[in-house]
Design a protein that fits this description.
269 residues; alpha+beta; 14 strands; 25% helix; binds zinc ion
């Protein structure tokens, strides 16, 4: 994945997705907005204590820079579950849907409709984008450790397959920036869940001390994608850790829970 710039706005772009010519997408960083500390500066969440007018202006900035209608960006009330919002809306109802969706407790979105930008908000959690290049279907999921344990990525793929006939070979996947094993310390609660759900759980953790482990959450999500047959060459990722790069991304852990959220979005053209 490449780091790109639009003025002072910094974002990651998957070349594999870009080359299809089918979508507009970006994993936005924290720079290039107008919010003040600790939400500086491109915070896109209304739920973290930032001023509403600043967040709205940040959405407008994204709309202008990427030439999408910021009122049409569909985000949901992410709740670390595994529920998926399937969007099958008439174009004239998108704005209404976008308004309503903000209160729906979902952690992933799928659509095969053009001109609907799907969005997820993260600060350390992993944004996962999907593109079925044959059937022209997109999806976007938010995975923290809970979503990872719930196999949210695999569930999104299953829904794409069930509804639109997506095959692993035609499914492209892209992982945005998230907290990585260098900084992601977890305790017994997480380890217990991993043990219960993944026979190979030890491949994804490193013991750091009594009851403390470092968790390679991205690697476990990557494993889940290859487990369902998505070819490794279809998957793009970044090595950037949000906690190591607070200059580029919001990090919930590194900033003690008081910070903004980065937007990742994808839209079928
Ligand atoms: Zn790190």
């Amino acid at each position: 994945m490449e780091i790109k710039e639009k003025g002072n706005l910094i974002y990651l772009e998957s070349e594999v997705f870009f080359e299809t010519g089918l979508v507009t997408h970006a994993f936005c960083g924290r720079k290039g907005g107008i919010s003040k500390s600790p939400f500086d500066s491109l915070n896109l969440s209304y739920r973290v204590g930032d001023k509403e007018d600043k967040v709205l202006k940040n959405y407008k900035i994204i709309g202008e820079k990427f030439e999408i209608n910021h009122n049409h960006i569909v985000t949901v009330n992410q709740s670390h579950g595994d529920e998926i919002l399937i969007i099958d809306t008439l174009p004239e109802r998108i704005e209404e849907l976008s308004f309503k969706a903000k209160n729906l407790k979902k952690d992933a979105l799928i659509t095969n409709k053009p001109l609907i930008p799907l969005g997820v908000l993260t600060a350390d959690c992993l944004p996962i984008m999907f593109l079925d290049r044959k059937n022209q279907v997109i999806a976007l999921a938010h995975a923290g450790w809970r979503g990872t344990v719930l196999r949210i990525g695999q569930k999104v793929f299953s829904e794409m397959k069930r509804l639109y006939g997506t095959s692993p070979h035609d499914c492209l996947v892209s992982f945005g920036a998230s907290i990585k094993e260098c900084c992601y310390e977890v305790g017994e609660e997480v380890i217990r869940c991993l043990k219960e759900n993944f026979p190979n759980w030890m491949d994804f953790v490193t013991l750091k001390g009594k009851g403390k482990w470092n968790f390679a959450m991205v690697d476990l999500n990557l494993f889940q994608m290859t487990e369902i047959g998505i070819p490794p060459e279809n998957i793009s990722r970044t090595n950037l850790c949000t906690s190591c790069h607070q200059d580029l991304f919001f990090s919930y852990r590194a900033e003690n829970g008081i910070t903004g959220r980065c937007l990742s979005f994808i839209m079928l053209k």
